[in-house]
Specification:
By secondary structure, this protein is an alpha+beta fold. It has 9 helices and 22 strands.
């Protein structure tokens, strides 16, 4: 640290350089390895475009013991030199420079897997494993797919299976169904993951029984295209894991589990559960959450402001319908108010409809864009908080007399 002769002068000071992004480190600086470590610093000096001439090759600026540098996208996409952001320029990565060895604690040395590249030119209609492998590699190289960690892991899991097979084996029906899904991931009009491909529909039917102090519930989850692909890989037909999932969603006991279309990725994957739960009781009144614990319970947006874009990877849509039936001698004493938000960023709807002793709630949350700018962060944070508050509101049921 502080010795320019050890490597180079250092654009932003002669010190030890770190970044929060493994992708940036791997693409720009790595020769096949990454070091992960802890870094200690006081409030760092924020570096902007005109500061380079002052800091280059020198030690820590004034009383600071670290420099923090948001870096912008070069005008040439092939340029490997990243510079501090100019005024009004959004950052794409960051760098952190510290100046004492004692400020760092290396933890892990990671060896990166080499990029094997395409094994052959993808054919329009792959027939053999070697052609299919090439097609999967081509999909993995797409920028939108590359940014989706869960999707990349799922595709890589399939790829590992294919790499163990004979390259001259013919594809079977399951492989062709997966191939069909891969063809639907990217919307050619936007060159992004198709927003319609990440959709989950949740249907709930709840029957309240105050006399037994328990209620029965049926929950059916239909996940189409990309979201179905996630659930197939996460749960498959493992009844123990599916049961645990539904217990986390508010069931006290799961009495029956069913899945369908696990082996057919071209249609929505379905998970269904029947069971019982115990609603809260206050005196002779019953308090129940009509969507159980299926909607988000906590927000990922914990900071008040953000300097970087919010990357959802793909537009996301969740649709809910809950039908709550109560005995004839009970009434709904408290029903949540409807809510509607509709603009270019999000569409959020919550609509209760009461008919006699049955309440139907139709709700949906649709984040329309795969990525939001830092200036839009406060709105996205608010919308997410609105979803948590509204979608988890309770009903109060009381006797009529």
């Amino acid at each position: 640290a502080g010795d320019p002769s050890s490597t180079d002068d250092g654009f932003f000071g002669s010190g030890i350089y770190f970044t929060n992004s493994a992708r940036y480190a791997a693409d720009v600086y790595s020769s096949g390895h990454l070091m992960l470590g802890w870094v200690s610093a006081r409030s760092p000096f924020p570096v902007v475009d005109e500061d380079m001439s002052v800091l280059s090759g020198k030690g820590a600026y004034k009383h600071y013991n670290a420099h923090y540098i948001p870096v912008g996208q070069p005008s040439n996409p092939h340029d490997v030199n990243f510079f501090p952001c100019k005024p009004g320029q959004p950052p794409v990565w960051d760098e952190l420079v510290v100046f004492q060895n004692a400020q760092t604690l290396p933890r892990f040395w990671v060896e990166l897997e080499p990029d094997l590249g395409n094994l052959s030119t993808p054919s329009a209609e792959p027939r053999y494993v070697k052609e299919f492998i090439s097609h999967v590699y081509a999909v993995l190289e797409h920028a939108a797919i590359d940014q989706d960690l869960k999707l990349r892991r799922a595709l890589n899991a399939h790829l590992e299976v294919f790499l163990m097979m004979d390259e001259d084996d013919e594809l079977d029906g399951t492989h062709r169904a997966l191939l069909s899904l891969l063809g639907k991931l990217i919307d050619p009009s936007t060159d992004q993951i198709d927003s319609a491909a990440k959709k989950r529909v949740i249907d709930l039917k709840i029957e309240l029984n105050p006399e037994s102090q328990t209620s029965t519930a049926t929950c059916i989850i239909n996940a189409s295209e990309l979201d179905g692909y996630y659930l197939r890989n996460q749960f498959g037909e493992n009844e123990e894991e599916i049961t645990s999932y539904f217990l986390e969603q508010g069931f006290d006991e799961v009495t029956q589990i069913k899945t369908s279309q696990f082996d057919n990725p071209s249609v929505p994957y379905t998970m269904a559960a029947q069971g019982v739960f115990k609603p809260d009781q206050i005196g002779n009144k019953i308090v129940v959450t009509p969507l159980m614990k299926i909607p988000p319970q906590t927000t990922p947006f914990t900071v008040e402001q953000r300097q970087y874009p919010v990357d959802f990877t793909t537009a996301q849509k969740d649709v809910y319908q809950s039908i709550i039936t109560i005995p004839q001698d009970y009434k709904f004493e408290s029903i949540p108010e409807p809510m509607s938000i509709s603009n270019s960023l999000a569409e959020i709807q919550y609509n209760p409809e009461l008919k006699e002793n049955t309440l139907t709630i139709n709700a949906s949350a649709f984040f329309l864009q795969p990525q939001y700018s830092a200036s839009q962060y406060s709105l996205i944070r608010k919308y997410y908080a609105d979803i948590i508050e509204k979608f988890n509101e309770v009903l109060v049921i009381a006797p009529k007399n």
